[in-house]
Amino acid sequence: MKQTHDTPQSDPSPVYPAYWSTDELVEKWIDLLHSILNEEKSCIPVKRAQRQVERESLYQEIILRWPNMDPDERLAGWKNLIGLSESAIRNVLPACVACGECCRQGSPTLHVEDLELLQEGKIPWKELYTLRKGEPVRSPFQEELLLLSEERIKIREKSGSTECFFYNNVSERCMIYAHRPLQCRAQACWDPKPATELTKTPYLTRTEIFNGVDLLLHLIEEHDRRCSFERLHGAFERLRETRGNSVEEVLQLLSYEDHFRSFLGKQLNIPEENERLVFGRSFSEMVPIFGFKVIVGTDGTRCLVPEQNEPE
Ligand code: SF4
Ligand code: SF4
């Protein structure tokens, strides 16, 4: 009977594959993928390389048989795994292997072409939100905040995460795969061209979504004018320059914007779940991006505090 090497009894060497458990093998293999990707200066995500190798029957056989392999077989198995990994990274399949990395890194921005999916109810309105012109956004590629030069409509992310709302991280599947937006259909981690080409395709805005609802479009315009991100930036800039003395200006602007959206929301019977699509993200919601937090006292008064100095 072959010896099982998952739990070595004597003289274990942490660097020698013969003594690795299956979990350790997978851990070392993922480290290996990282280092090959670095060496090759490849931009494909490690998860994608992992998924491509996992599909290979040789990989599946190595993992299945690993607990019962003898030391020589394990060494040969590890060498095979190195070969499979190098080959997968050097010869990336020109196809999406549905590793889910795109869906975990962010939700899609919609294009005019996606409007039909919305109108047919394939993607519910309540899962969308608007990023307004001038809005500060975080890019996954750089530290500093970007200011949007144009409005964008996005599918929302899960709370406190960058993961797309429609990504099921248990089944690792898209819940609206057959009706996913244009950006998702163009995802190609092995080739940046489709994504670059897509930026030339017109983006969806509230003008197309609410086409024909003139009163609403007028009020959206009014909200954008009176509660522009330029004003919010200016108020935070003055707060910094005056070392906090102009805090009232910021608080008033936050209250005004809150009032504007909730008043119009009630007047026009806009369901709360659609408010982030109609008026975008509220100023109050955006405060943390400027390094502050709003604390509401028991009497309803609001106070602005730097995030790191939040009272206990
Ligand atoms: S395109 Fe995105 S989801 Fe598809 S394999 Fe590449 S990283 Fe994964
Ligand atoms: S809509 Fe589907 S494919 Fe697109 S990012 Fe979300 S989960 Fe992924």
How would you characterize the overall build of this protein?
Helix content is 43%, strand content 9%. By secondary structure, it is mainly alpha-helical. Strand 2 (136-138) and strand 3 (145-147) form a beta hairpin. Helix 1 packs parallel to helix 4. 22% of the residues are buried. It binds iron/sulfur cluster (2 copies). The site of one iron/sulfur cluster (SF4) has 12 residues, from helix 5.
Strand content: 5-15%
Q: What is the tally of beta strands? A: 8
| Spatial order of strands in the largest sheet | 1-4
Helix content: 40-55%
Q: Ligands in the structure?
A: iron/sulfur cluster
**Average pLDDT metric:** 91
Order of helices and strands: HHHHHHEEEEEEHHHHHHHHEE
Q: Assembly type of the shown chains?
A: single chain
Question: Quick one: overall form?
Answer: elongated
Secondary-structure-derived class:
mainly alpha
Give a short synopsis of this structure.
The protein is mainly alpha-helical and 312 residues long. Helices cover 43% and strands 9% of the residues. A two-stranded antiparallel sheet has the order 1-4. It has a two-stranded antiparallel ribbon with strand order 2-3.
Please give the structural blueprint.
Layout: H1 22-39, H2 46-54, H3 57-65, H4 71-90, H5 101-105, H6 115-119, E1 128-131, E2 136-138, E3 145-147, E4 152-155, E5 167-168, E6 173-174, H7 182-185, H8 193-198, H9 206-209, H10 214-226, H11 229-241, H12 247-267, H13 275-278, H14 283-286, E7 292-296, E8 302-306
Antiparallel strand pairs: 1-4, 2-3, 5-6, 7-8
Bound molecules: iron/sulfur cluster (SF4) (2 copies).
One iron/sulfur cluster binds near residues 166, 176 and 184.
